[in-house]
Design a protein that fits this description.
With about 900 residues, the chain is an alpha/beta fold. It is about 55% helix and about 15% strand. The strands form 5 sheets. The protein has a 5-stranded mixed beta sheet.
């Protein structure tokens, strides 16, 4: 490293000497310039006085000659001064300017400085060669001419040189004195500073903090003493650090030990929480299994109406309790970060239609108007998770219906643009009780409601909005709420729009068609949705006059068809059977269900705008027939469960499906022995049992089958473990599926349809009896979705939902098979997506999973695996429909006709 004083120019002494020399030089230059300036000014004044005096003498001498015009006399006068060294020219001029006589150079310079003009610039004097003055020639105080003298300024340069020489000597003397002063300062200031700098540099390089700088006098001495104090402080710090380091290793060891213990405690607490959650879920579900299954069996028995209603209340109360447990488990999954969302094409309009349809009966029973308004610029399709988005929207709508006593609930979807790009805004507005402003900030917090009394008045756990927020955040969006107490609330979600397809074609009324549309006594939400779409299409909703009519069915039946030449569209609530009667009586030209479904309303709006025929399909009238349970008579089942109640429940439920050859054991070891001694068609195995648990028993059975080459028997885990390690243990044990306790008859029926061959039904309305393929390890139906459907409406509603599924699912399957035959992967993906979406909405879990797998395979472009993935989907759909009939407990209509239509549609 270079020493700090190795460069004299950069050292303090060098800079001081340079400063002194520079100051002297600048002062010398200024002084020399000023002296030169003053000397030139003095020279100009003296030269003017001398020349003027000489000219005045000449003017007096030449006055007579000038007056007489005597050139010789004037020439003689000039000749008397012609020998002056400084004069270069002299002349006597008459009054008219003619020259009477002259002496000197014959050529006059044009740039002579005229000293008669007053002050002359010293710079001009130094840049010229000649100076001129003139005085008048007077006779009796009358000017008769003038004398002109021109002199050079050669002596000016000599005088300036003298001044510069004098200044130079003075500057050298001043420089010598300055350097002497500088050397003195170096001895008293810079040398001690240099010594201090060397000491500091030595400390820095050698880390020797025991060195000390030499103390001097004055400010430099004080600086050296301050540096020494700093070194002493550093020495004290080093000694303190050394003392601290002596015990630091031990302290680190102790703290590390504490941290390890704290981490172990936290891990044990988390594990204990998970175990507690799994254990409590298991312990709650185990007694609920007996209660719910027996309540369902009791409700389906031949009982008086009142007792049957009591049994249904028990079953539905149990299902509500189970839904609360599932909500808590869902929340735990969200908290653990295990929640995943799909990114597949979804239709916002389909999501809105599904949600308002599912909540239609609940809204009608509460006397509320429910509708969805979709703006025209909303894309037909975008990337997202349709199930999760429907869950969020359904939560908002359910919340709005719960807290709205009168008025309406309006769902609205519209596009907005933010700095990050386009977003889809989904809002649900109601005219309910509203939320106080001081409660809005915590409304999305788990287990929180606007008022603790709300939980007592309306029920609920306070988890729904929290889960909805987590879902939207997982989609990259955000949620919010706007509310005024006593006026209502608006819950909204904004999600980014990616992979969007174009919006629906804009509908425009033909100019020749009437624009007026009269709306009857409609609810606020329905009126808002209809008005927005009609105005966008060029129609004008009016209160009176002629035009088209959109009116409630009840209003039409009460007052008859409105007068006028327009078309009449009747709004019929879902479940209302008056549609066919309106059509037969000619009161309406078309029937539109309410809440509005975009899939039904837009074709009618297009027909109005184009003047074409209206679709006249009306909601089907109620059908009734007895539902029949499938029979699996002749099947032999091994039932292993340590609980006598659970064995009784399962045996009774199996008996409802014609299964009476049941062998019951109480532990896993007995199950292994029974499976080795007898042949069974199905094994239902509890997970937690004494002696040998069900999972170990399944492993032992699989090992025996592999060793002996025996036929593989289906083993299904019949367990209350739905969270924790036990929830997934059945897969590692080689089991074929899991049926969670408490189960329903529909779930059990779906499970039996997967693994057993159905016998002919006792009822003439037979179902397809071919063995359903084992496609998924889960049960056929999704219980939370089924429970939600049951909560939404009565048997009429459930029957309509099921009929819609029976009508649409085979068509989607036919489109899927047609696309597979053509090898059209995009078409396969679209058809599978449609089948998956409708199956998810009705709770057909296995069909949804199989369709989702086909959709993913098609999107990957793997055509070779598509045929294998779609194998057996038709049989699975048939079994699912049967399970839905059983689970929903709704009329099947003409079972024979329905099943034949189904088989015909599926078979192509």
């Amino acid at each position: 490293m270079r020493a700090p004083l190795s460069n004299p120019i950069r050292s303090l002494s060098g800079r001081l000497a340079l400063a002194v020399a520079s100051a002297v030089a600048i002062a010398l230059l200024l002084l020399t310039g000023l002296s030169t300036w003053r000397e030139v000014e003095r020279y100009a004044a003296a030269k003017r006085d001398l020349l003027r005096m000489t000219a005045q003498i000449l003017a007096a001498s030449a006055a007579q000659a000038t007056a007489q015009g005597d050139e010789a006399a004037a020439q003689s006068t000039l000749r008397a001064i012609a020998h002056g060294e400084a004069l270069v020219y002299a002349s006597v001029e008459r009054a008219d300017g003619d020259i009477l006589a002259e002496q000197g150079i014959g050529l006059r310079l044009s740039n002579d400085i005229d000293l008669d003009q007053g002050a002359v610039s010293p710079l001009d004097l130094m840049t010229t060669r000649t100076l001129r003055v003139s005085v008048p020639i007077l006779e009796n105080a009358r000017p008769i001419g003038r004398v002109v003298l021109v002199s050079d300024n050669r002596d000016l340069a000599e005088r300036v040189a003298e001044v510069g020489l004098t200044a130079g000597f003075a500057g050298l003397l001043a420089l010598a004195l300055g350097l002497a002063v500088s050397m003195g300062l170096q001895r008293s200031v810079t040398r001690p500073l240099a010594a201090l700098a060397r000491t500091m540099d030595g400390v820095r390089l050698g880390h020797d903090y025991s060195r000390r700088a030499e103390a001097g006098s004055g400010e430099v001495g004080a600086l050296a003493e301050s540096f020494n104090d700093l070194l002493r402080a550093v020495n004290e710090r080093d000694r303190a650090i050394a003392r601290y380091n002596a015990g630091l290793e031990e302290e680190i060891r102790l703290r590390t030990h504490d941290l390890i213990e704290a981490k172990q405690s936290a891990d044990e607490a988390n594990a204990a929480k998970s175990v507690f959650l799994a254990t409590m879920s298991h312990e709650i579900r185990t007694p609920m299994n007996g209660m719910l299954v027996m309540a369902e069996l009791l409700a389906s028995a031949d009982l008086p109406p009142r007792q049957q209603r009591y049994a249904k209340v028990i079953a539905r109360s149990g299902q509500s309790l189970l839904a609360i447990i599932n909500d808590i488990l869902d929340f735990a999954k969200v908290e653990a970060g295990r929640l995943e969302v799909e990114r597949i094409p979804l239709s916002p309009r389909d999501v809105a239609d599904t949600v308002v349809t599912l909540f239609a009966e609940r809204a009608r029973s509460a006397g509320l108007d429910l509708a969805a308004q979709i703006d025209g610029d909303v894309p037909r399709s975008l990337l997202g998770d349709p199930v999760r988005l429907g869950q969020v929207l359904g939560n908002f709508v359910s919340n709005a219906l719960k807290f709205t006593a009168t008025g309406h609930v309006l769902v609205r979807m519209q596009m907005e643009h933010e700095t990050s790009g386009p977003v889809l805004r989904i809002a649900v507005s109601d005219t309910g009780i509203g939320i106080p402003q001081d409660r809005l900030s915590g409304i999305f917090t788990a287990f929180t409601q606007a008022d603790q009394s709300i939980a007592r008045r309306f029920g609920g756990t306070g988890l729904g909005l929290s889960i909805a927020e987590r879902l939207i955040v997982a989609m990259g969006g955000r949620v919010g709420v706007e509310s005024r107490l006593g006026e209502g609330s608006t819950f909204w979600a904004r999600i980014p729009v990616e992979g969007a397809e174009g919006a629906e074609p804009v509908l425009r009324r033909a100019p020749a068609l009437p624009a007026a549309v009269r709306l009857g006594a409609l609810g606020g939400a329905t009126r808002a949705a209809l008005t927005a779409d009609l105005q966008a299409a060029g129609f004008h909703p009016v209160e009176s006059g002629e035009g088209h009519w959109i009116v409630e069915a009840a209003e039409l039946l009460a007052s008859g068809r409105p007068e006028g030449g327009g078309r009449v569209i009747a709004l019929v609530p879902i479940g209302d059977t008056s549609g066919p009667e309106l059509m037969r009586a000619g009161l309406a030209d078309a029937v539109l269900r309410r809440p509005l479904a975009q899939a039904e309303w837009r074709p009618l709006l297009a027909a109005l705008a184009e003047g074409t025929a209206l679709a006249v399909e009306a909601p089907a009238a109620e059908e009734s027939a007895a539902a029949a349970l499938p029979s699996f008579a002749g099947a032999r089942v091994l039932l292993a469960d340590d609980s006598a109640v659970n064995r009784e429940v399962a045996a009774e439920a199996l008996g409802r499906f014609g299964v009476h050859d049941i062998v019951c054991v109480e532990d896993g070891a007995a199950a292994v022995e029974a499976a080795a001694a007898h042949r069974f068609d199905l094994v239902l195995m509890d997970g937690s049992m004494p002696v040998l648990d069900g999972f170990s028993a399944a492993i032992a059975i699989r090992a025996r089958e592999a060793r002996d080459g025996a036929v593989r028997v289906p083993i299904v885990a019949l367990t209350a473990h739905v969270v924790g390690d036990g929830a997934e243990s059945w897969q590692a044990a080689g089991m074929d599926g899991r049926l969670a306790k408490p189960f329903t008859l529909a779930q059990l029926g779906g499970l039996l349809a997967q693994h057993l061959r159905a016998a002919p039904l006792r009822d003439p309305a037979d179902i397809v009896t071919s063995e359903a393929p084992r496609i998924s390890d889960d049960v056929l139906l999704d219980e939370p979705t089924i429970a939600n459907l049951e909560e939404l409406g009565d048997r009429d509603f459930l029957a309509r939902i099921l009929r819609l599924y029976i009508a649409q699912a085979p068509q989607a399957l036919l489109e899927l098979e047609t696309a597979l035959a053509r090898g059209d992967a995009p078409a396969v993906s679209r058809a599978a997506h449609g089948l998956k979406s409708m199956s998810a909405n009705i709770g057909a879990a296995q069909v949804k999973d199989r369709a989702g797998a086909i959709e993913r395979t098609a999107r990957d472009g793997d055509l070779t695996r598509l045929a294998e993935a779609a194998s057996g989907l038709d049989s699975l759909l048939t079994c699912t429909v049967t399970a839905l009939h059983l689970r929903l407990d709704v009329p099947t209509g003409s079972a024979e006709g329905e099943q034949s239509e189904m088989a015909h549609a599926i078979g192509g």
